[in-house]
């Protein structure tokens, strides 16, 4: 790999940590770019859950990079091999970059199936074991713009032993070296970028070793694995990220796997992360909820008056506090969303979020969404996914704007305030 | 031409008619039927049906959006496919979210944000088919709510009151539905009762200036009963007629004869709606027999099981044989699904996401609507019989596979198939 074309150009770095910039040189022609902090477009086999291209493209400002996973793709190796033109064309995606990861961040897979030479992914037909050879054969037929190197990421559970963590770091480095050898000898992968995977569980020294060693390899960027929501609290996560990023070169992007909650995203950006996966809006959709947290920091005189008068925000009183203390269960509702199955929305003729410009909010009311959910109608998933995707990507836009204008604290205050208010009410 | 009413003098005086024959001269119903073209060979016709929300080109297939939504498709997508009228089910919507809430949301149009026309059924059919504990009396249909177990009476007045709350452009009378396979005195009773209920429905309609009430011809598979029903109902001043009680598992030979008998006696200047019919062959044949409007859950329901409708029948996307098939479902189809996706991708997507169903649903609605547009065009251009022959040739691999009922039905309207 004669030097990666992918390059991060910063417009601003705050306190040596939060990074605002543009990831350039993307795509096989090197012409595309994406802003960071940013997130990828989450999909099932190239399709944003519930959405067709028509409904997806009611959304503007979609991320330029789409994430696909080998857990979806591996079982279709044969047809893709025959197709020859890569996954993007196979899936009817014309205008997006493709990032291929190993696992689906919203579908944690069972542990206990990795060996020295293999990792396993779970598709609709069950487990598929991947060697480096098979893993690389898949990359060659998928033809992504960039992919995550093969990794042993089974150290996220509590009480994983130091020995097991060390083994995962060693294996992951070995997989990376083997992937790179195949990569460099594959014409099909010319211009495709590899992200090395940083493992190390919750053990600081192993994290540092993994980062330091991975950084020595010719990778375009880094995936931080094993830090996902549910595996540890944010304090420890922040510590580990801070230690890891110190070992990584400044100009290469860092993708954090498995973290999507807005409060956690904010903390991780502050700790130096650049890229996230957008599985969170999907999870919110699946539980029949709508994202409603406030991220608006543009000055708005009317709003300021409202606040002076102690006016309560529209949505603050409606979110139900739970989930925050339940680290293990990602299916639990968080305080960033409202549960539209709740009876109180039965005759609520307001949009999901007042002022939201998404197709759902411009055309439908909470009462209708409530009806679709209680009658189990498929359109509920479609409309919620549209709104949640719009809201979540809007949040990332606001995050970049806040970094540009030195208003990160203000944004944090906005995003977290609903939660503070919760606690008060609860007590 | 607005509904022309012949009335007054020769009202027949069977006992059923004494009730409330509310015949007024030239009531201004919110419906106009303009006959654009009539086939010179068959009974087919192409019309513009002007309804409160937009003009509908007939013959028309109306997709069914049972609970105020068309199975995973947004109203914009449905509009994009050219749909001008779709259905809502009174029974389901009356239960959840209920007429009061829908009224508050400015009717079903407002609730689901659908800008074009809606037709609602009476709720009676679901009652009989879905609810086990239902009892039909002169008063109405009595049943137990599946949601809270409460006993509910769906009377003609109640059905219309709910449909008035829904605000549909076309409402259906409550009829006494008997399975088309039942014979004997029950069928006759149901036919007469349906006539009495029609009068009660007409009287109960609070919005005759905004909502059209259609009568439903009953009479089972008995030609005499059908004829009696036709005679009676056509005396009423209703803006349109449906042919009911068919498409319920009866022999196709009986089915088409009842359809053609009905269209023979229905007034030319009013729309004719054949309920529950949606298979492509049935549509084409029944257009030839003179029907204008059709509805069926089949195209959307079958889509969710991976069955895509094509000019040569159907294609089971989930079957293994399509796993590596890189063609679109139908290479000639112009729908958003066929323009972008291959059979192989859709086959694989069925294993990963529900969006696969939406793709097929969109395709199937597009298929139905395109079929009807082609039928209409051929009627307008004067070559409908030729269209039928080409259609049948494409649908069936050989002449001997043509269903005999379709051959007979078409022969009855002067179309012979080679």
Automatic annotation (TrEMBL), chain A:
Mode of membrane association: Peripheral membrane protein
Pfam family, one: TGT
Principal subcellular localization: cytoplasm
UniProtKB keywords: Cytoplasm, Membrane, Metal-binding, Mitochondrion, Mitochondrion outer membrane, tRNA processing, Zinc
Binding residues annotated for Zn(2+), in chain numbering: 356, 358, 361, 387
Gene Ontology annotations for the cellular component aspect, listed alphabetically: mitochondrial outer membrane
Top-level division of the source organism's lineage: Eukaryota
Cofactor note: Binds 1 zinc ion per subunit.
Subunit and interaction comment: Heterodimer of a catalytic subunit QTRT1 and an accessory subunit QTRT2.
Job description of the protein: Non-catalytic subunit of the queuine tRNA-ribosyltransferase (TGT) that catalyzes the base-exchange of a guanine (G) residue with queuine (Q) at position 34 (anticodon wobble position) in tRNAs with GU(N) anticodons (tRNA-Asp, -Asn, -His and -Tyr), resulting in the hypermodified nucleoside queuosine (7-(((4,5-cis-dihydroxy-2-cyclopenten-1-yl)amino)methyl)-7-deazaguanosine).
Name of the protein described by the UniProt record: Queuine tRNA-ribosyltransferase accessory subunit 2
From TrEMBL, chain B:
Cofactor(s) demanded: Zn(2+)
Residue sites binding substrate per the record: 121-125, 175, 218, 245
Keyword Ligase on entry: no
Annotated Gene Ontology cellular component terms: cytosol; mitochondrial outer membrane
UniProtKB keywords: Cytoplasm, Glycosyltransferase, Membrane, Metal-binding, Mitochondrion, Mitochondrion outer membrane, Transferase, tRNA processing, Zinc
Membrane topology note: Peripheral membrane protein
Family to which the UniProt record says this protein belongs: Belongs to the queuine tRNA-ribosyltransferase family.
UniProt function note: Catalytic subunit of the queuine tRNA-ribosyltransferase (TGT) that catalyzes the base-exchange of a guanine (G) residue with queuine (Q) at position 34 (anticodon wobble position) in tRNAs with GU(N) anticodons (tRNA-Asp, -Asn, -His and -Tyr), resulting in the hypermodified nucleoside queuosine (7-(((4,5-cis-dihydroxy-2-cyclopenten-1-yl)amino)methyl)-7-deazaguanosine). Catalysis occurs through a double-displacement mechanism. The nucleophile active site attacks the C1' of nucleotide 34 to detach the guanine base from the RNA, forming a covalent enzyme-RNA intermediate.
UniProt name for this protein: Queuine tRNA-ribosyltransferase catalytic subunit 1
Species this protein is from: Lates calcarifer (Barramundi)
Phylogenetic classification of the source organism: Eukaryota, Metazoa, Chordata, Craniata, Vertebrata
């Amino acid at each position: 790999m004669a030097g990666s074309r992918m390059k991060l150009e910063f417009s601003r770095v705050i306190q040596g940590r939060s990074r605002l910039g543009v990831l350039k040189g993307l795509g096989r022609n090197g012409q595309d770019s994406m802003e960071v902090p940013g997130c990828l477009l989450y999909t099932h086999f190239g399709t944003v859950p519930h959405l067709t291209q028509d409904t997806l493209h009611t959304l503007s400002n979609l991320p330029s990079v789409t994430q696909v996973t080998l857990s979806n793709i591996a079982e279709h190796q044969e047809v893709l091999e025959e197709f020859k033109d890569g996954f993007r064309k196979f899936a009817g995606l014309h205008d997006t970059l493709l990032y291929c990861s190993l696992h689906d961040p919203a579908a944690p897979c069972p542990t206990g199936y990795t060996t020295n030479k293999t990792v396993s992914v779970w598709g609709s037909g069950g487990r598929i074991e991947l060697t480096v050879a098979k893993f690389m054969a898949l990359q060659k037929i998928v033809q992504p713009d960039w992919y995550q190197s093969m990794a042993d990421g089974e150290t996220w559970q509590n009480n994983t032993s130091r020995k097991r963590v060390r083994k995962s770091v060693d294996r992951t480095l070995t997989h990376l070296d083997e992937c790179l050898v195949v990569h460099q000898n594959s014409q099909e992968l010319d211009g495709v970028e590899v992200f090395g995977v940083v493992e190390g569980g919750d053990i600081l020294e192993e994290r540092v070793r993994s980062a330091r060693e991975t950084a020595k390899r010719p990778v375009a960027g880094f995936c931080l694995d094993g830090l996902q929501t549910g595996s540890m609290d944010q304090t420890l996560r922040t510590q580990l990220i801070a230690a890891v990023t110190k070992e990584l070169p400044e100009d290469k992007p860092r993708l954090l796997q498995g973290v999507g909650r807005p409060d956690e995203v904010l903390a991780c950006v502050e700790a130096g992360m650049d890229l996230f996966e957008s599985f969170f809006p999907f999870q919110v959709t699946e539980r029949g909820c709508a994202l409603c947290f406030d991220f608006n920091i543009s000055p708005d005189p009317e709003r300021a008056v409202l606040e002076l008068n102690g006016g309560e925000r529209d949505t603050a009183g409606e979110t139900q506090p739970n989930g925050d203390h339940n680290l293990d269960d990602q299916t639990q509702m968080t305080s960033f969303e409202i549960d539209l199955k709740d009876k109180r929305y039965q005759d609520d003729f307001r949009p999901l979020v007042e002022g939201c410009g998404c197709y759902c909010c411009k055309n439908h009311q909470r009462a209708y969404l409530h009806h679709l959910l209680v009658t189990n109608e498929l359109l509920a998933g479609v409309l919620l996914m549209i709104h949640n995707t719009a809201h979540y990507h809007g949040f990332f836009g606001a995050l970049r704007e806040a970094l540009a204008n030195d208003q990160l604290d203000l944004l944090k205050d906005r995003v977290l305030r609903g939660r503070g208010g919760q606690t008060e009410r609860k007590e | 031409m607005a509904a022309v009413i012949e009335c007054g003098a020769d009202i027949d005086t069977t006992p059923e008619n004494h009730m409330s024959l509310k015949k007024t001269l030239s009531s201004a119903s919110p419906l106009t039927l303009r006959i654009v073209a009539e086939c010179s060979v068959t009974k087919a016709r192409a019309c513009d049906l002007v309804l409160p929300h937009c003009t509908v080109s007939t013959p028309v297939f109306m997709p069914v959006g049972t609970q105020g939504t068309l199975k995973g498709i947004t109203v914009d997508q449905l509009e994009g496919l050219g749909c001008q009228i779709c259905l809502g089910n009174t029974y389901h919507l009356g239960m959840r979210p209920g007429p009061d809430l829908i009224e508050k949301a400015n009717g079903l149009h407002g609730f689901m944000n659908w800008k074009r026309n809606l037709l609602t059924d009476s709720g009676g059919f679901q009652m009989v088919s879905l609810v086990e504990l239902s009892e039909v009396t002169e008063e109405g249909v009595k049943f137990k709510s599946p949601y809270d177990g409460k006993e509910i009476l769906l009377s003609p007045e109640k059905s219309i009151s709910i449909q008035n709350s829904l605000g549909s452009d076309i409402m259906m009378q409550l009829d006494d539905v008997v399975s088309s396979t039942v014979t004997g005195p029950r069928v006759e009773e149901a036919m007469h009762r349906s006539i009495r209920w029609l009068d009660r429905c007409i009287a109960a309609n609070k919005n005759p200036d905004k909502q059209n009430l259609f009568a439903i011809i009953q009479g089972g598979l008995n030609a005499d009963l059908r004829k009696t029903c036709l005679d009676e109902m056509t005396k009423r001043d209703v803006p349109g007629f449906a042919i009911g009680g068919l498409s319920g598992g009866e022999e196709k030979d009986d089915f088409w004869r009842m359809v053609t008998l009905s269209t023979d006696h229905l007034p030319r200047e009013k729309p004719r709606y054949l309920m529950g019919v949606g298979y492509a062959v049935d549509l084409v044949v029944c257009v030839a027999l003179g029907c204008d409007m059709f509805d069926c859950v089949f195209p959307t329901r079958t889509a969710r099981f991976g069955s895509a409708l094509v000019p040569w029948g159907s294609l089971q996307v989930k079957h293994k044989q399509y796993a590596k098939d890189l063609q679109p479902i139908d290479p000639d189809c112009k729908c958003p699904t066929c323009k972008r996706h291959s059979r192989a991708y859709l086959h694989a997507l069925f294993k990963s996401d529900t969006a696969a169903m939406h793709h097929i649903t969109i395709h199937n609605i597009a298929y139905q609507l395109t079929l009807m547009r082609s039928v209409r065009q051929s009627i307008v251009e004067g070559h409908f019989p030729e269209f039928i022959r080409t259609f049948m040739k494409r649908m069936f691999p050989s002449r001997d596979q043509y269903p005999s009922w379709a051959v007979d039905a078409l022969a009855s309207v002067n179309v012979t198939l080679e």
